[in-house]
Amino acid sequence: MEDSFQVRPIGVIRTPYKDSAPYQPLAEAEGDFRLVLDPEWESALQDLDRFRYIYVLYWIHRITRPVAVLAHPPWAEGKAVGLFASRSPVRPNPIGLSVVQVLAVEGREVKVSSLDAFDGTPLLDIKPYVKDLDSKEDADYGWLEDLPDKDHLLLHIKGIPHDY
Amino acid sequence: MEDSFQVRPIGVIRTPYKDSAPYQPLAEAEGDFRLVLDPEWESALQDLDRFRYIYVLYWIHRITRPVAVLAHPPWAEGKAVGLFASRSPVRPNPIGLSVVQVLAVEGREVKVSSLDAFDGTPLLDIKPYVKDLDSKEDADYGWLEDLPDKDHLLLHIKGIPHDY
To answer: Which residues, listed in sequence order, are joined to residue B70 by a DSSP beta bridge?
Structure first.
């Protein structure tokens, strides 16, 4: 098997997050979230606006910490979990994945709902999020369900504003 | 921005598909589907078995066709759609994404439900699929809803066996 493969950006992600970004997309986040594709890919956006949701894949480019096999998620109250059981951005292959809503496709830009990525993040791929194939109604919260402060954490996961 | 980034396999995907693979995971597919991680990543699987579903990211390594901005999905009855509105494996960055069930974690292997990848596919990442964050109950079928043979296609998407 080959040792490594090359990925090349197909465009850039524009967000209001210049110096800090949330851990997950926030339902109430304000501002402009856009996928700006390189001109050669404009036609490849045809029909994308027929989907309510899409997957956005990107290169998590501003990581400086070394990769570790255990992660300490900010929500997990000090608990360490296996890296692959976490959504930590510090991964052997720092490929970010977000599910976002398509708001509009205009030329080579896709206006989307909020996305937890820094402004300027290299865009790698867009895939349609298809009902049944991708939406699993019996999904669970995994180890998050074991945490004493679970109910509060779920507000963060759902992006619901709360003041405690 | 950098021109390109390197990804390195963290392991390999084992499936029964040596020479042909389905377009999407089949609910009724038989056989052994496993993610076999390189030894250094065994500890990073801790807590993964607490999740019902995970994302599997992989390098689609057996593509020989050139990338085109329009795709002709096998289900779409000749219709051409924008590449990013399709799940075609022929993409500028051939990163495959599947949602699978975790059946068991044993040492450095994850036994999973069926996966539409060839045996020997390089594994890039595993992420937990988290309720609410990833399961969108109001997702739709996009342009698939426009097709005259929609009901039949949905059986394929859902992986439901049928003989017509």
So the answer is: B82
